[in-house]
Amino acid sequence: MELEVIESTKRQIKIKVKGENETLLNPLVQELLRIKDVEYATIETDHPNDTYRRLFVRLIKGSKKDPVKVIKESLKQVKKVTGDFKKELNKAIPSK
């Protein structure tokens, strides 16, 4: 995976993510949209077969948060949720 910041301001950021697709980015976008300071979060692509996606995040006007810190906060939450799911799966389906 390669990341390249395409655009960055106090309120928004656009990151080119090469080598990943919606499988990784959709859960991140869903978590971003739960944060009250996030006005808009999406994945952009020119064509479904492209080897990269663009993650775009915009915060509400007047937000004191940093878009990069908001992304990191959301990534922590995605990691927690997937860890919780793994624990529950192991309870439901014990290993042999």
Describe this entry's structure for a reader.
Helix content is 39%, strand content 30%. The protein is α+β, with helices and mostly antiparallel strands and 96 residues long. It has one domain (2-92): Gyrase A, domain 2 (2-Layer Sandwich). A hairpin with a 7-residue loop joins strand 3 and strand 4. The relative contact order is 0.18.
How would you describe this structure in keywords?
96 residues, alpha+beta, Gyrase A, domain 2, 4-stranded antiparallel β-sheet, 4 strands, flat
Summarize the helices and strands and which ones pair or pack.
Elements: E1 2-8, E2 12-18, H1 22-32, E3 38-44, E4 52-59, H2 67-92
Antiparallel strand pairs: 1-2, 2-4, 3-4
Number of helices: 2
Q: What is the typical, i.e. mean, pLDDT?
A: 94
CATH homologous superfamily caption: RNA polymerase, RBP11-like subunit
The CATH architecture classification is: 2-Layer Sandwich
Taken as a percent bin, the fraction of beta residues is: 25-35%
In total, the number of domains comes to 1
Counted beta strands: 4
CATH class: Alpha Beta
Radius of gyration: 15 Å
The helicity comes to: 25-40%
Structural class: alpha+beta
Task: Provide a concise account of the structure shown.
By secondary structure, the chain is α+β, with helices and mostly antiparallel strands. It is 39% helix and 30% strand.
